[in-house]
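1st attempt posting a full record on here, be nice pls
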Amino acid sequence: MDVRIGIQNSPRELGFEAAQTAAEVEQAVTAALSGQSPSLRLSDEKGTVYVIPGAALAYVEIGSEESRRVGFVA
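the predicted structure (as tokens):
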């Protein structure tokens, strides 16, 4: 699943393919924004772990869970 995260006071966004489902990512973001968790912790498909302080989150865009198609569509 494609996830893009905007971080306050940073000109670039963080984008990666998350290993979690859309519901799991949404729960983690909600917990970080409500203060239940001090940080947002997500991992990508390669095993890299991303930890972002909840107070630094500007936005989180959760993409579709569909895999990308390669080639021509007939």
